[in-house]
Design brief:
By secondary structure, this protein is α/β, with parallel strands linked by helices. Strands 1-2-3-6-5-4-7-8 form an eight-stranded mixed sheet. The longest helix has 12 residues.
Length: 191
C-alpha cells in the first residue's frame, strides 16, 4: 500500500544528502573534487571524467543502488537530440563517474551491465527521460528503478512543487544552483 512509500523521499534524501555539492575546490585533468556536506562536517568526493565506458572494476564496485542522471542536447530523443553525458554514483559514497559516451556507436557494455542488473536499484529524478535516453542509445533494458519525482508526487500531496531543486531544499536544506542545467555537454569532457 501507500504507507510503505511514506518515508521514500526521506530515505532517499537521507542516502544522498551527503552527495549534495556545496562548491568546487580544485580541478585536475582526469578528475575534480567537490566539497560535500555531511551533517556537521565536510568531506570530499572524487569525480572521474570518462570517455566511452566505465571499467569492469568500476561496474563491479556498485552494490545496492546507484544515483544516475543524464544530459542530452535537448528533449527530443531520438528524433533530433543525442545523449551527451551520463553521471553515476554508488550508494556506498565515494566516487562519481561522469561519462561522455562514444557518439559514434554508444557502446558501453560495462555501464549496461550495471543498468540491467536487477539487484542494483537505479535512483534518479524524473527517470522517464533518463531511462528513455539510456535505453535508446545504449540498447539496454534498465531494471529496478526508483524515481524521486514519482515518490514525491505520491508522498508530498500537499504541494505541486516536485522538482529536484524543491526536494533538495525541503529534505536537505540545500539550495541547488541550476546554472549548469543548460550547459553545452557536447564539448570535450576535459574542457
Amino acid at each position: 500500500g501507500i504507507s510503505r512509500w511514506n518515508n521514500a523521499p526521506i530515505i532517499f534524501f537521507g542516502q544522498i544528502s551527503d552527495k549534495i555539492s556545496a562548491y568546487k575546490t580544485t580541478t585536475a585533468k582526469d578528475c575534480c573534487y567537490w566539497v560535500i556536506i555531511h551533517g556537521n562536517h565536510d568531506s570530499y568526493m572524487k569525480i572521474h571524467k570518462i570517455q566511452g565506458d566505465i571499467s569492469s572494476e568500476v561496474a563491479k564496485s556498485f552494490k545496492d543502488s546507484v544515483a544516475i542522471d543524464t544530459e542530452a542536447t535537448g528533449l527530443l530523443i531520438p528524433e533530433r537530440d543525442k545523449l551527451s553525458l551520463i553521471q553515476i554514483c554508488g550508494s556506498e559514497g565515494g566516487d562519481v563517474y561522469v561519462i561522455q559516451p562514444d557518439r559514434n556507436n554508444y557502446k558501453a557494455p560495462n555501464l549496461v551491465s550495471v543498468l540491467e542488473n536487477n539487484k542494483i536499484q537505479k535512483i534518479g529524478h524524473f527517470l522517464r527521460f533518463d531511462k528513455g535516453a539510456l535505453e535508446y542509445f545504449l540498447k539496454c533494458k534498465i531494471q529496478n528503478i526508483f524515481c524521486t519525482k514519482i515518490a514525491s508526487k505520491i508522498c508530498r500531496t500537499y504541494t505541486d512543487a516536485h522538482g529536484l531543486k524543491n526536494l533538495v531544499q525541503e529534505f536537505c536544506n540545500k539550495n541547488l544552483d541550476k546554472k549548469y542545467g543548460s550547459s553545452d555537454w557536447n564539448k570535450d569532457i576535459n574542457d
